[in-house]
Structure formats: structure tokens, C-alpha cells
């Protein structure tokens, strides 16, 4: 038996009585197939009308159930969006300005997914909200306040530090793994009392006296750096000093923190640097494990996973063994000795509990995190700046020579007294701060001074260091390298809290003295040995952020030349501080800007972090796919994660041509750029030679347009799928060959009387509206005219939309062309989940399409009965029935015929109306051209007696005016083709693959001054016969180009010429006051006036 719900459905909806239902059930093989049951029942009904009524009722019931499901999904989506908007109103409710957010993501896509340009995003907001001194951001739903007022920075980081003692919380990453627990013991990740105790123990480690004890270790590594670099310079033209400085800092840290001599300058594959590189590389895999740990912590622990790689165990073992050796009495004067000494001498009785063995390993690792990359980058940037400013380099070298002469060598005291040396490093840190932001977490409710803003516990506060360091209000000539800013006599001019390379306040970088010592020693020794020059072709340095730290992107390539004075230095120039020769430390506390993200509030954390994991996986996939164009040497504008540039072409389609034009200008010399629509690469080019090959010469490689799948099972969608413009390959070729004869000059001429009748009605109606001096919306009138013309020429219907704007035909067309986000989202839904879409019984096109289907089907039946009107349908039937094409009946089916009639509206309704509106507007603004055209038309009347087909075809200036209007306002702002076979673009090494899209920015090409002198001016003479030879081929593309150009362009121009001619012979056009400019928009991909074209129509006085 069927389930009760199924029985109720068929008995209550289809009116099957119980006895019949039982009989039918017994006949079914499987028993639970509703459609089979319905079919069996229908076969028993004798009357066709009865069957139709049963199907309609059943369909209505089924659709009702599916619509309920769909509306439930839509309701959930709307509620989620409302919730997102509510959470993202946190700052606006408090009067804090905020840049636009993305639903759910907030601004995290700017600070995480595209973190390589994080400082640029901060700079945008810094400029946009500068006078407000702050702005609000969101990481998912977590509010984050960005401040840059020095007084506010002082309060948050110093004066009221007890309200902002913490960094963001990372305790959610406790996995139970020993190596993960060790990492979480780092000072920079500690908060509250634990941080306070640990900082108190570590601070004495970095006093001037303690750092001085490691001076000899640093000096030895600096000597090795100079020796290695000079050896490289002797055998090579250029030296990558970024690479060398990284090896130097690694050797120094290994020696000063772990007591290990890894010699990475000589041996790149040494175990210590190799394992360190793996440990401190934050990969996508690491980020996914972090997200999984936050979403399902219990499962994460049960699986025994660890966030940190197994190589971390190497450092744990090394440091444990080293600690055991030191506790037996061995001393080296390195970082471990200092930590042990600080722990054991602390007045805090619990210090040994705080600084346990795991914590000690963690601080040694922090020594690498804070100092490896940051100090290497500081040295690389400093050398680059000094190489570009040879006067400052020589000035610093003279100071260092004086220091050596005074102290007998490079000593700790000497470099501490070198004022210009310090000033050069400080100015480098200003131009290239190690971390581009500082961050604190609010721990207690706090009211910002001189504001009404109250911060709550958990709110994050950030300071945009890069922007402050480059603010001309704080630093005159901020982009210029001026070390003198930091000389003692000028330091008083520096506004407090505007120089923050090491942070500020109690949580500043604990090891900043050591970092500067290491950099000063290395830079001093290098400059005394070598003269630095930027290598040819490397005069600029590209930047990136990696693991939250700023660094040179592609190395710092320099030329090193031996200094003539270097040989005179004494052999012993280093002051020995203690035995041993190890390395150095540099834990910058800016590792707090790591890319590990905020732990969300406890409520809903698993849900939101599950979403985060999915997003991360998708982003990782799309990021990898997003290298398609860059790997082929094609420039590309910045893409949004996942969607690429899709939002530019769809969600903000009203400004689509501006997006293309912006990149047309940006990449003009490249003649192309690459885009991504989600995962699909699209090449945009305006190279006329490429266009010639794509459109004409090699069009067989680009015969198709993008694939538009509308096979939903709905009849109205099937009709739309049969349109010529959507067809591909052999199907398109066959259909085009049948339709082409329909639009020959002779066939179009046969529809000329129909068009003239509608143009007469247009003129009569417009003059009636203009009576009494009223302004007329000619965009609206031209829309009604083209609709009447198409209805008559395509469907054989007289809809009279000029007189009856609310008639059925007119109303259905307006709904159909309204489009909207609903249509867009249904298209996306069907693209991603076609089976579910079909199960929900949805349609891509609105029900109004059914009206056109019924109308045309009835018209076809009438024509088959012998009725003829000489319209589009007659011409299609005639083309189909030609005996020389035996397959035409299979291609041009009744369904295809309906489809082409609907296409006739889509292609001609809005486009021709916009052409006429734009042309009238331009002629109204250019009275000289209007009168010149009127004179030509009057001459045509004098010659032919009236407006005739031959007469308007011979009117050269009429055609020129329309062509110039089409240049200024092309119907489509871009043209597209799909590559069908692998193809090498001429004049390039670029290979297009099947499925690649090629787009041509029509608007930009039409407005390019290199193609069209004075491109924004209305100059019809460009298109006069005597001037057409001056037009560059493939720079005028209003109807496309090649075999897939607009098949009905002759009809469109004839329709426009007739209407414009009749109108100008009756009235003078003037722009209505207050409507002197025209605003544009794109709807359904077509360009049109946005707010109407308001004109004054003045009757022509008869002479």
C-alpha cells in the first residue's frame, strides 16, 4: 500500500476514489511511484478535457509543495542576511564610520584572504576616515576598532594600558599535543596574569648589560656574513642580500638561542635551518587544522592531530638537552643562560612554575619568530635605501670609520654611540615597519577619552602603523629616506606615538635592543668592507606580507664593491664580552599580528567556524586556480576570493563598462588583461589584430558564445534555449543559415510599410504630448514604438502600446524585461544545483514567457491555414520551407520558431529604443547637426515625394548620425566569444584553451582617443563616405563582428531611420531644462538611459 500521505494527495487532489486507488496500487510493480500512478489513472479517463484538469490540479499541488520548500530556504537565507546586517551594525550604531561589509565575512577578506595588500587596505580607510581618527571593521562578526589619533594611541597603549593588557585570544587552540602546548607558551600569545609574570622574568634578560654579553657571538656571525657576501660579489655581478641576511640572522639565532652552530651561510641544507623553515611556515594545511580545532576540538584531540608539524619536536629535544647541560654547570653566555639566570634570580617564588622547561623552549622558538625574518628584512631594506642614497651611505661610512679610529675596532660602546647609524635604521623602520598593524584586546569596559564610544571586553583595537608612518602630517616628505629626522637634535620634532616599529607601551617588543644591536653590527661591518649600489633593473623593491610581517618580495639585489680603506682595519676589531662564539636573538613582539584569527564568542562558535572551514577550503582551491593568467604572463586586476571578478560583471553590472574602462587604461600597453568569473578565466583584449583573427580569419576557433544552459525541463526555458544567440556549434550554423535569408535587404523592404505605420503613430502621439510646451519622455515613447513595431513585425499583433501603456502585451513585456536579482539567483542556483532546481519545479524565466509562447503558437497555426501578413513569422516559415535545405524542417521546428520570435523582441526592443533616445538627445544638444540632417531629409522628400525605403537607405548623414550615436553609446558594452579549439593568439605566446572566454570592451574601444580623435564629442562626419576610410578596422563594433554579428542589424537601422526621419520632419528637438545630461545604466547587459530622455518638441513651421 501507498503511504497515507500519498493516498491523501491523490484522493484529495486528483479525486481518485478509494476503490480505484486500491486497484491502481495493485497494478504498480514497485508500489511507491506517484508519477506512474498518475499516468495509469489518466489512461483510464475517456475525456481529454478531464485529463487536462487532473494534470493541472496535480501540478498545482506539486508546485505548491515545492514552492513552500523554496520559500523556506529563501526565508532562512533572508533571516541569515538580516542577522548579518544586524551584527554588522555594531559600529554604525555607535557612530563609528565603517567601510562597506560583505555579508557574514565583514572585512576579513581584506585582512586575511588578501593579506598581502593589508597595508593598502588600511591606507584606504585611513584616508577615507582620516578626520574621524578611527573606523570600525569586522572579522566575521567580531568588531575591531582601528585608531590613528596619537592621543588615543597613548591612552590605549600606555596611560590606560590596564584596560588593554591582552592580545587576541588563542586559548581555543589547546589540542592536548605537547608541541602545541609549547607554542602556546610563547610570551606573545600569553594574556593576563600569565603574561605579566612571564614578562617580568624575561625583561631582565634584555637589559643593556645582558645584551652586551652576547655581543661577541653576534660579531662573529657578522664577520662570516661579510666574508661570504664579498666572496659572492667577487664571482658574481650581483648579490641577493636579502637571502644573505636571512642566513646571517638564522645562524645568529641558532647560536644565541639554542647554542647551535648551523652555518647556514655555507650549508643551505643544514638540519637546523631546514627544520626551522618548516616549523615557521604557516601553510593552508595549518590554517585548516586551526579551523578544525576550533570547530570540533574534541574530535581534533581524539584523532591525535597537532597544529604544529613534527619538526617542532626537534627543537623541543634540542633545547631540553641544552637545558640539562646548562644545569650541570656548562655556560655559554647565550639566551638560554640568560633565561635560566633570570628565572633563578627572580624575587617571584613562582617564577620556576612560570618559566618551566616547556616555556623555555617556547621562548627560544619565539626568539626565531620575532627575530629571524624581521631583522633580515630590516637589514635588507636598510642596504637598499643606502644603495639608492649614496650620499647618506658615505656619510654613515665616515661615522663608522671615526668610531673604529676612536675605539680601535667595532665595539659595543662604539655602535651604541653611532648616532647616524641608529638614525638610518630608525628611518628604515619608519618606511618599512616590520608589522603593518598593532593590536590589543579590550579586557574591561572602557570609554574612549573625548568620545561617546564605549568598548566592551573582547573588542579588538588596531593601529595602522604603515599609514601613520607614511602620514605627511606627521612626517614631511614621508616617502623620502631622511635619516636626519632621528638625530638627537631633531628627535624633539617627532610627534609622540607616530613612530611605532617595535610597538609601544608595556607590551612592546621585549627584544628590540637586541634586534637593533644585531642590525647595527652587521650593517657596520658590511659598510666598512663594501660600497653598496642597486643592481641595474632592481632600482625598486616590491613588498609583501608573509605571516603578518612586511618583507621584500623578490629579494634585494645589490652590487658590492670592495672599499679602498677596508684593508687598513686592525685584525682584532671586536670587543669580547664573554667566552664562546654564538649568535643572537631578536624576538619582535610583532608576531602577535600572526594570521591565526580571532576565537569567536562561545555562542555559535562551532557553526561559524564550520562555515569558516568551508570558506577556507574553497578559498584555497580558488586561490590556486587564480594563477591561471599570471602563470601565462597576462596581467590581471585584483580578484575577490571565490567569485573572482564576477561581482563586477553581475552584482554591480550597472557600472560594468567603467570597470572595463578602468582596466583598459591600466593595462593599455599590454593590450589585454585577464579576469575570472568564479573559476572561469576570461581574456579581455582590444588588440585589433587579435580581433581580426578571432572575429574573421580564425573564427572557426571562436565560433561559439558562452554556454548558457537553460534545460530545466520547463517549456518556457526550453523555448529560450532554442534562441539563435544561445545556440552553439553545428546547431547554430544550421539555424543561422536558415535565418540569414530572412534579413536580406529585399525581405526587410517587405516589412517597410509596417514600420512606417508605427513611426507615423509615434510622431502623432509625441506631438500630442508636446502640445502646450510640455516636455516629453522620448525614451518611453521610443520604447512603445519599438514594442508596437516588433509586435506587428514578429507576432502579427497590434498591441497599440503608445495609446494603451497598460495593455496585456505591453505589461507582459515590461515584466519580462524587468529581470532583477531573483532571476540572477535562480540562474546561479540552477548552475550549481541543477537536479535540486528541477526537483523544486522551478523555471529560470518568468511565467510571462508563456504568454508569448501561446501568442506565437496561435499565430503559427493561423499562418499554416493560409493567412499571410509579410511579417517576421511569414519570412521564417518561408525560409524553413525552402526546398534547397532539406534539413530546415528539423532545425526550424515550431518551438524554434517561437524562440526566434521572442529573440526578435529581446534583441530589438530595448536596443532600438535606446538608439533612438540617444540619437534624439545628441541631436537636441547639437542643433547644427539636427538642422543639417533635417535638410537632408527634406531633400529626400523633394526627390522621392515621401519617405521611401530607397530614400532612407541613400540618406548618408542620417546613417552617419546613427552610427556616431552607436559609437558613443554602444548597445552592448562588451562582446564575447568562446574558444572551441586550442589556439595561439597572433603576435603572442599565449595559448587559448577550449572553454576560455575572450571579451572585447566595446565601450572602451569606442571611446579610445587613439582610435577616435575627440572621442566624447558627437561628430557624425566621421561616418560620411569620404571619411570612412580613416576609421581603423575593428574599432567600431555596435553590432558585433564576423559570422556571429547581429543578424537583424539591417532591420534595426531601418526601424531607427524611419522613426528619426519622420520625427525630425515634423518637430524640432530641444533638451528640456534640467535634463542637459544623460545618466546611463546597463540592464540585462544592454546600455540604456537610466532616467528617461526629456525633450521639448516644437512643430516645424511650413514655409
TrEMBL record:
Keyword entries, A-Z: Endoplasmic reticulum, Heme, Iron, Membrane, Metal-binding, Microsome, Monooxygenase, Oxidoreductase, Transmembrane, Transmembrane helix
Span list, region Disordered: 574-595
Cell compartments where the protein resides: Endoplasmic reticulum membrane; Microsome membrane
Bilayer topology annotation: Peripheral membrane protein
Pfam families per record: p450
Residues passing through the membrane, by range: 600-622, 815-833, 902-924
Keyword Cytoplasm: no
Protein name listed in UniProt: Cytochrome P450
UniProt lineage: Eukaryota, Metazoa, Ecdysozoa, Arthropoda, Crustacea
Amino acid at each position: 500500500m501507498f503511504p497515507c500521505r500519498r493516498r491523501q494527495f491523490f484522493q484529495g487532489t486528483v479525486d481518485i476514489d478509494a476503490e480505484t486507488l486500491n486497484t491502481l496500487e495493485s497494478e504498480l510493480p514497485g508500489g511507491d511511484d506517484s508519477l506512474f500512478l498518475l499516468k495509469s489513472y489518466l489512461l483510464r479517463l475517456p475525456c481529454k478535457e478531464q485529463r487536462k484538469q487532473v494534470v493541472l490540479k496535480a501540478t498545482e499541488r506539486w508546485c505548491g509543495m515545492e514552492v513552500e520548500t523554496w520559500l523556506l530556504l529563501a526565508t532562512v537565507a533572508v533571516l541569515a542576511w538580516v542577522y548579518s546586517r544586524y551584527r554588522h551594525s555594531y559600529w554604525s550604531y555607535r557612530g563609528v564610520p565603517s567601510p562597506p561589509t560583505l555579508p557574514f565575512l565583514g572585512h576579513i577578506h581584506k585582512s586575511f584572504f588578501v593579506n598581502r595588500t593589508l597595508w593598502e587596505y588600511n591606507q584606504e580607510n585611513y584616508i577615507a576616515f582620516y578626520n574621524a581618527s578611527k573606523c570600525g571593521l569586522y572579522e566575521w562578526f567580531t568588531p575591531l576598532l582601528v585608531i590613528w589619533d596619537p592621543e588615543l594611541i597613548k591612552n590605549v597603549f600606555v596611560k590606560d594600558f590596564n584596560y588593554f593588557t591582552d592580545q587576541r585570544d588563542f586559548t581555543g587552540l589547546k589540542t592536548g599535543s605537547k608541541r602545541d602546548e609549547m607554542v602556546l607558551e610563547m610570551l606573545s600569545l600569553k594574556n593576563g596574569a600569565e603574561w605579566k609574570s612571564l614578562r617580568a622574568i624575561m625583561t631582565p634578560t634584555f637589559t643593556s648589560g645582558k645584551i652586551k654579553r652576547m655581543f661577541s657571538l653576534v660579531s662573529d656571525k657578522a664577520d662570516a656574513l661579510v666574508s661570504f657576501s664579498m666572496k659572492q660579489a667577487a664571482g658574481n655581478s650581483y648579490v641577493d642580500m636579502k637571502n644573505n641576511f636571512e642566513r646571517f640572522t638564522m645562524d645568529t639565532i641558532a647560536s644565541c638561542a639554542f647554542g647551535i652552530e648551523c652555518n647556514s651561510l655555507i650549508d643551505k641544507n643544514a638540519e637546523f635551518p631546514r627544520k626551522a623553515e618548516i616549523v615557521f611556515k604557516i601553510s593552508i594545511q595549518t590554517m585548516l587544522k586551526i579551523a578544525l580545532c576550533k570547530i570540533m576540538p574534541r574530535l581534533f584531540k581524539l584523532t591525535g592531530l597537532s597544529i604544529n608539524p613534527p619538526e617542532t619536536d626537534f627543537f623541543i629535544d634540542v633545547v631540553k638537552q641544552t637545558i640539562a647541560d646548562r644545569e650541570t654547570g656548562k655556560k655559554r653566555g647565550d639566551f638560554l643562560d640568560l633565561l635560566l639566570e633570570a628565572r633563578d634570580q627572580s624575587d617571584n617564588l613562582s617564577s620556576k612554575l612560570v618559566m618551566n622547561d616547556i616555556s623555555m623552549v617556547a621562548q627560544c622558538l619565539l626568539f626565531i619568530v620575532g627575530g629571524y625574518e624581521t631583522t633580515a628584512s630590516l637589514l635588507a631594506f636598510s642596504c637598499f635605501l643606502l644603495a639608492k642614497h649614496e650620499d647618506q651611505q658615505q656619510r654613515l661610512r665616515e661615522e663608522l670609520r671615526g668610531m673604529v679610529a676612536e675605539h680601535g675596532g667595532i665595539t659595543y660602546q662604539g655602535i651604541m654611540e653611532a648616532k647616524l647609524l641608529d638614525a638610518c635604521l630608525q628611518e628604515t623602520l619608519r618606511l618599512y615597519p616590520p608589522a603593518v598593524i598593532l593590536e590589543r584586546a579590550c579586557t574591561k569596559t572602557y570609554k574612549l577619552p573625548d568620545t561617546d564610544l564605549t568598548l566592551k571586553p573582547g573588542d579588538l583595537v588596531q593601529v595602522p602603523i604603515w599609514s601613520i608612518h607614511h602620514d605627511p602630517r606627521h612626517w614631511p616628505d614621508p616617502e623620502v629616506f631622511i635619516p636626519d629626522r632621528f638625530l638627537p637634535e631633531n628627535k624633539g620634532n617627532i610627534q609622540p606615538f607616530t613612530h611605532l616599529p617595535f610597538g609601544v607601551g608595556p607590551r612592546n617588543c621585549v627584544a628590540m635592543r637586541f634586534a637593533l644591536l644585531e642590525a647595527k653590527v652587521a650593517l657596520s661591518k658590511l659598510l666598512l668592507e663594501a660600497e653598496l649600489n642597486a643592481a641595474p633593473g632592481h632600482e625598486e623593491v616590491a613588498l609583501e606580507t608573509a605571516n603578518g610581517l612586511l618583507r621584500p618580495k623578490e629579494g634585494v639585489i645589490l652590487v658590492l664593491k670592495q672599499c679602498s680603506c677596508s684593508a687598513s682595519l686592525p685584525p682584532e676589531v671586536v670587543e669580547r664580552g664573554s667566552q664562546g662564539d654564538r649568535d643572537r636573538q631578536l624576538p619582535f613582539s610583532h608576531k602577535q599580528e600572526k594570521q591565526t584569527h580571532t576565537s569567536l564568542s562561545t555562542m555559535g562558535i562551532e557553526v561559524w567556524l564550520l562555515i569558516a572551514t568551508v570558506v577556507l577550503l574553497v578559498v584555497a582551491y580558488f586561490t590556486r586556480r587564480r594563477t591561471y593568467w599570471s602563470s601565462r604572463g597576462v596581467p590581471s586586476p585584483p580578484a575577490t576570493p571565490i567569485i573572482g571578478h564576477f561581482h563586477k560583471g553581475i552584482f554591480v553590472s550597472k557600472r560594468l563598462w567603467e570597470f572595463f574602462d578602468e582596466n583598459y587604461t591600466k593595462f593599455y600597453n599590454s593590450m589585454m588583461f585577464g579576469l575570472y568569473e568564479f573559476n572561469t578565466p576570461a581574456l579581455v583584449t582590444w588588440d585589433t589584430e587579435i580581433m581580426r583573427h578571432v572575429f574573421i580569419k580564425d573564427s572557426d576557433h571562436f565560433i561559439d558564445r558562452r554556454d548558457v544552459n537553460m534545460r530545466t525541463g520547463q517549456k518556457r526555458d526550453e523555448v529560450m534555449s532554442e534562441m539563435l544567440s544561445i545556440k552553439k556549434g553545428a546547431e547554430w550554423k544550421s539555424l543561422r543559415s536558415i535565418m540569414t535569408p530572412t534579413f536580406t535587404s529585399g525581405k526587410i523592404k517587405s516589412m517597410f510599410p509596417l514600420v512606417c505605420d508605427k513611426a507615423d503613430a509615434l510622431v502623432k502621439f509625441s506631438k500630442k504630448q508636446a502640445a502646450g510646451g510640455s516636455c516629453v519622455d522620448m525614451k518611453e515613447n521610443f520604447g512603445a514604438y519599438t514594442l508596437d513595431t516588433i509586435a506587428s513585425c514578429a507576432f502579427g499583433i497590434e498591441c497599440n502600446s503608445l495609446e494603451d501603456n497598460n495593455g496585456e502585451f505591453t505589461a507582459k513585456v515590461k515584466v519580462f524585461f524587468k529581470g532583477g536579482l531573483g532571476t540572477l539567483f535562480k540562474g546561479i542556483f540552477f548552475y550549481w544545483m541543477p537536479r535540486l532546481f528541477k526537483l523544486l519545479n522551478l523555471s529560470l524565466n518568468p511565467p510571462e514567457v508563456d504568454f508569448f509562447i501561446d501568442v506565437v503558437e496561435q499565430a503559427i497555426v493561423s499562418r499554416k491555414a493560409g493567412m499571410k501578413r509579410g511579417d517576421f513569422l511569414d519570412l521564417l516559415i518561408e525560409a524553413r520551407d525552402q526546398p534547397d535545405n532539406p534539413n530546415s524542417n528539423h532545425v526550424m521546428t515550431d518551438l524554434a520558431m517561437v524562440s526566434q520570435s521572442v529573440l526578435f523582441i529581446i534583441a530589438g526592443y530595448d536596443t532600438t529604443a535606446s538608439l533612438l533616445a540617444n540619437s534624439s538627445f545628441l541631436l537636441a544638444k547639437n542643433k547644427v547637426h539636427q538642422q543639417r540632417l533635417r535638410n537632408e531629409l527634406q531633400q529626400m522628400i523633394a526627390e522621392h515625394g515621401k519617405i521611401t525605403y530607397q530614400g532612407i537607405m541613400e540618406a548618408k548623414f542620417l546613417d552617419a548620425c546613427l552610427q556616431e550615436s552607436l559609437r558613443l553609446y554602444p548597445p552592448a558594452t562588451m562582446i564575447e566569444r568562446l574558444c572551441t579549439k586550442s589556439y595561439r593568439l597572433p603576435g603572442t605566446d599565449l595559448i587559448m584553451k577550449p572553454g576560455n572566454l575572450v571579451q572585447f570592451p566595446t565601450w572602451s574601444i569606442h571611446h579610445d582617443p587613439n582610435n577616435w580623435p575627440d572621442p566624447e564629442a558627437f561628430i557624425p562626419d566621421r561616418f560620411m563616405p569620404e571619411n570612412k576610410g580613416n576609421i581603423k578596422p575593428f574599432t567600431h563594433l555596435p553590432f558585433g563582428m564576423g559570422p556571429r554579428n547581429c543578424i537583424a542589424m539591417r532591420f534595426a537601422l531601418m526601424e531607427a531611420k524611419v522613426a528619426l526621419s519622420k520625427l525630425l520632419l515634423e518637430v524640432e528637438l530641444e533638451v528640456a531644462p534640467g535634463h542637459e545630461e544623460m545618466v546611463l545604466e546597463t540592464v540585462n547587459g544592454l546600455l540604456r538611459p537610466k532616467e528617461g530622455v526629456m525633450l521639448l518638441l516644437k512643430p516645424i513651421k511650413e514655409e
